[in-house]
Amino acid sequence: MPGLPPLMRRFLPFTPLAVAGLAALTMGALILPCPAAAAVGGRPTKRDGDLLKIFERQIVYVVTNDDPAVADALLEGCSQKERRVLTIEEWRKKPADLRQFVSPVFLINRERLPVGAQFPNSCLADGDEVWTEVKRSGRPSGFTYEVTLSAPDSTWLRRAIESFRSLRESPRQPVRRNVRSIVVVPVGSGAQEAAELFIQRQNSEDDFNKRSAAHLLPAALVQPSAKTPARCDLMEELVLVDRSSALGEVPALPTGTTLASPGDTVAWRETKPDGRARVIYSAPSAGALFEAVRRPGKTLSPPETLTVMASARDLRTVRRVAVAGVKNGVGGEDLAKRIASEAAVRLRALDTFEVLERSGLNEILGEVALNQAGITHATDRTRVRQLAAADTLLIVEVTGVGGKTEYGAKAQRLTPRLAPPPRRPAEPTRLRYDILIPGAENNPLIRSVTESVLGRAVGTKSRREYRSAINDYNETTLRRWQEDVDNYYAQREKRQIDWKQDIIARGAATVKGSLRLVDLTDGLVLWEAPFSATEQGESAWATRRAVTYGEDSNAPSLPEDCPDPKDVVADELIDRAIDSALTQGIQALRGTALLPSTSAVLGTASASEFPVNGRVLDVDGDSLLIGLGAGDGVKLGDTLHITLADGQIVRVVTTRVRPRTCDAAFAPAVPLALKSRAAIGQAVLRETVK
Predict the structure, then answer these.
(1) Other C-beta atoms lying within 10 Å of the C-beta of residue 36
(2) Which of 203, 458, 627, 637 would bridge with 614, disulfide CB 3.0–4.6 Å?
């Protein structure tokens, strides 16, 4: 190869492939990036905002007096060499020189430390402080780290861990942060649910910058022992008292105050000797307590004087409840029956009433004079009472059922994409051999450099040869290429594209209405609460194949046979909305009414432990339905007194006893004239227990 150095001619044979390789190396040198842009020494770049890098390739000992799972919460995603979780006692047994080889991490919940104890010794946190500290120590093979996270309780320890994981660099000095810890003390078995609700709401934003957090403390730990002060003495307290099942010592009402009604939910705030606050909520039932905590507002800021937050309706005398539904012209034909049946199931689950379902009540309620005050006409009440055979009627009234379904499509292209159009052929070069750089055939700069570099090595064409090659290129090669391009775009415009189209139905359903408990004796409404619920969902309506034409055609639109989206509501969504609405209504009943107690043990209580007042619920010939039951201490064969309007007494004997009601028959000595005067609503007293 003339023009090349002897050493290159020796190792580079004269072949077109060899010459092309030389050209590629030449051009590669022009376009390679500067090596300064690569990482120095092959090391990865620094990871900003990831403090966990201090534990990489470290032997980490996590020392904690909390749940061992906090170690996972701290080191998740960290590539430490080895990890062990130890208790404080296990760590103290390790040799002192162990710290030269391991990185200890202290995750300390000071609530679980003995009074006056300090661990580790370098941690000076006190009270409601969160302490964060990182120390680095050198050794011949590198560095070890000592990390301390100390918090006043378990909740703040977990928040401190999340805050530590978000640090960008190690703090140079210990970080001390004052926080607000709230201890929630449930008193009574029914207060647990309300306590959990408050804690969930208070800690819903898992943010270290939110300086208040709540956690549960059993009532048994509230009172300090002679040697150990209670943890809650150093915290703000929220005491939730369920008076229906209160256990242990209950906070006393402020001096000089009494409850105006047994159904009152009251709250007040006290100041403890250290200046922190103790807030007390006292409710007549678990439901009322839950409702008070659930209600939006400043739960922790009630007045210092006793304040009535809500007052529950007293329904403890209600025994037998019949359930019926009213649809008011909305929904399907069986909507009222479905809702009434579901409401009866929910009400029966409370285990406070005898719940009855009577066929025909739904139809009667559509005919009677029913308004917001109750059942107005006495004749209507008589019809309903005779069919219901109960003292009260729970009316589930649905005032609105609405919603719609919208349809959308998700399309997946099945036909693969068409290859790119034919590339323009490269023009002939002046070189003896057509040496081209792949991907740069038509780049004039690269062609010029290639010809100048390789011209002397491979030779160049004569003027006649180059002109002949150019003419053949223009007249034959380009014409054939243009025909191929025209055919390509003609095929692209007419090409059939197959699609898989999923039709998705996205629906929403809303149910509105109210629950009303009506006294069938006087027709008045004893209790009422509205409900409203909306449910949303989506489902696959259909899957089909669709066709469009043209390579760039868009996904097919919705087919014309989709149902009209107006007023189309999926039955499943309506059922779910009904379920949510009734759950809301029954929860309101628990929270805004005093219900009959379920704590009585049937058949084992003495007569003096139960109220003995009741009334006649129904009279059918010689059989009577009485609003007293086993929950009131009534037993089979007991004699009961019915007091007539003029004060005369009619004796009846129980023939069947249920939890809340009983059946009775007139005593043999009762005259026929007195039997005929027994009527619904008359007072009943228990005489003796046999």
Answers:
(1) 6
(2) 627
> What does the pLDDT read at residue 379?
72
Three-state DSSP string of 309-358? EEECEECCCCCEEEEEEECCCCCCCCHHHHHHHHHHHHHHHCCCCEEEEC
Tell me which residue of 359, 259, 348, 274 sits closest to 309, measured CA to CA.
259
Residue with tokens 């009619």: 650
Which tens digit of pLDDT belongs to each residue from 367-423? 676 666 667 677 777 777 777 778 888 888 888 888 778 788 888 889 999 889 988
The Cα–Cα gap between 664 and 168 comes to 80
The pair of structure tokens assigned to 96 is: 């002192």
Contact status, residue 493 vs residue 552, Cβ threshold 8 Å: no
Give the C-alpha separation, 640 to 491, whole Å. Answer: 98
Nearest residue to 652 via CA among 612, 676, 624: 624
Query: What pTM was computed for the model?
Result: 0.59
Q: CA nearest 505: which of 473, 469, 543, 478?
A: 543
Token digits for 42?
Answer: 């092959």
**What single-letter DSSP state applies at residue 37?**
G
Distances (CA, A) of 204 to 291, 296, 551: 18, 15, 51
Q: What would the mean pLDDT of 554-575 be, rounded to a whole number?
A: 71
Q: What are 32's two structure tokens?
A: 């390679």
